[in-house]
Backbone:
């Protein structure tokens, strides 16, 4: 099971690491973190650097292709090299997946035309620019293209992919292995659930 | 707000990156990833390397000290240098926190003596070796020492720390910012909730 994860400057680390932690437990998983240039990639906070051990040309096939989001997504959407690579891999993937604004990158590659999709809730309407139909669902499956909502939604998406690939028992086993039994102190993880002034606060920070 | 996160070979990436994604959003956060040796640290799957931009001696103070878990925890518990560093930082922290088997490392440093604590459910009884009282709770607060259960529990713990440091609104805003509105396909994230044969399966894999 070849898994390719795109890394780029100013991406959000958890968008990639959440699903990675789940998908890397698939039987025979072979995960490759790839970027335009091999080496260290600085994530959006500036505090954490992840190693891209492969450059794009070294990853020519993937069963699962994963595109994380983050403030750097706009830059990536301008990169013909990345978009070509995504289109090329997508032809033979079993699943092409995104987390957060990673879906905007899939959109820029022309892969969401006419499909329902999701992204970070503050960026939802941007999906229309790429011919996609925004939906507030946490994980949206459209054939082999699977988009997840903001940041942490990638964990839920990855557990669903594991379920499809290796079945119910194995997905539950991975969930139990990472003890994913969420108990946040509040129930404010979506704009529909958070208090209005908290939604406004996040909008003012995230623009 | 100085945040120090210990990195080491064969750690579990999400143990560190989950809480990092939350804590790095604290006002004036300054996060330092530190390891015995500066440079790349290979995580437990072998597929992902994180950059330790600091060596231990370069981080002499932290408001929050975070110790992740992973299969490499046993090696770290033998390292006098790491344990000395943890004890030294702990003297002045506001919170000393662990995720998963990171609590066993805190225990080896002598910091859990007589305290209630948690860890990954498959390792729970090991806490007794360090004079701690195991509990199945997801997040255990004992004064300024806060331990979290396996892997993904660090996200919940970090949201609690943000609540204590910056208040309810801000914690909710961070939760909404990362869209932490969990919707896993199953409810099997703890041994009490997962089917018996799934619990057995994970035990057989994780030993």
Residues:
């Amino acid at each position: 099971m070849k898994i390719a994860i795109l890394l780029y400057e100013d991406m959000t680390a958890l968008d990639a690491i959440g699903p990675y932690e789940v998908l890397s437990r698939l039987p025979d998983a072979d995960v490759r973190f790839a970027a335009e240039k091999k080496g260290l990639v600085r994530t959006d906070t500036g505090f954490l650097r992840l190693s891209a051990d492969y450059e794009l040309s070294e990853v020519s096939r993937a069963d699962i292709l994963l595109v994380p989001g983050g403030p750097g997504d706009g830059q990536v959407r301008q990169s013909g090299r990345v978009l070509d690579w995504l289109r090329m891999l997508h032809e033979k993937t079993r699943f092409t997946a995104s987390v957060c604004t990673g879906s905007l990158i899939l959109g820029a590659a022309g892969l969401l035309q006419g499909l329902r999709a999701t992204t970070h809730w503050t960026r939802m309407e941007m999906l229309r620019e790429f011919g996609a139909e925004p939906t507030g669902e946490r994980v949206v499956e459209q054939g082999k293209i699977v988009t997840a909502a903001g940041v942490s939604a990638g964990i839920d998406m990855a557990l669903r992919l594991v379920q499809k690939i290796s079945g119910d028992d194995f997905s539950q086993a991975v969930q139990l292995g990472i003890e994913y039994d969420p108990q946040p102190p509040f129930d404010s993880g979506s704009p529909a659930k958070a208090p209005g002034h908290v939604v406004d606060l996040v909008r003012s920070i995230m623009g």
About this structure: The two ends of chain B are 38 Å apart (CA to CA). Chain B has one domain: 2-206. Chain B touches chain A through 67 residues (CB under 8 Å). Chain B has six helices and eleven strands.
